[in-house]
Amino acid sequence: MTERTLYGYWRSSAAYRVRIALNLKKLDYQQVSVNLIKNGGEQHHAHYSALNPSELVPVLIDDNLKLTQSLSIIEYLDEQYPQCPLIPSETEAKYRVKALAQDIAIDIHPINNLRILQYLAGELELTDVKKADWYRHWIEVGFHSLEKKLAQSSGHYCEGDSLSLVDLCLVPQVYNANRFNVDMNAFPIIERINNTLTMHPAFIAAAPENQPDA
Ligand SMILES: N[C@@H](CCC(=O)N[C@@H](CS)C(=O)NCC(=O)O)C(=O)O
């Protein structure tokens, strides 16, 4: 049997995406919690830094293969374990799904990452109020364009009526938006799809509050 270990953190959106993928594909895995807050951030400790010099979670070990970057990890899982496909095979849909996923995971998520917020609050001395404004602003900018794109692509889910990589990126990003009180009434399509997805058992099992380190 394949030994599979996910190094993550309950509130990490990138680890959350991978947890959903593993659950949808019904793959067993054990979790190792890397506490991003305590002890100066365990992602910076030598043993984790040796595993991933980027000092970011997640890392997935699949047998002897070490994988980083959530989008790349999910693409790997989709190729290796084709049950419940997450990236369509048809060319137009495939690249639309990848682009929408990147709209979230590359254009929205990284500028609100923990280390960015720590820099804003520390070196740049932003108050908590201003830091939260920053956070909300970049989600709202990203969600406004995403909402327009989903008006074209969505059905039941982000890409028609099939679950896809975009859905795995959407739910953790909406979780973050809610944490920072983004007014989701401005984004009815995102809100509708998120409400559908968060009732799915694979998404429920992957939710931050349901992780052992929560
Ligand atoms: N592009 C990476 C992003 C990984 C990432 O930003 N992880 C965050 C948690 S969501 C992290 O480890 N942050 C630690 C820090 O900022 O120090 C991926 O998709 O895997």
UniProtKB/TrEMBL annotation:
The keyword Isomerase applies. This is Maleylacetoacetate isomerase. The keyword Isomerase applies. GO terms for molecular function: glutathione transferase activity; maleylacetoacetate isomerase activity. Belongs to the GST superfamily. Zeta family. GO terms for cellular component: cytoplasm. It comes from Vibrio amylolyticus. Pfam families: GST_N_3 (PF13417). Keywords: Isomerase. One of its GO terms (biological process) is glutathione metabolic process. Its EC number is 5.2.1.2. The lineage of its organism: Bacteria, Pseudomonadati, Pseudomonadota, Gammaproteobacteria, Vibrionales.
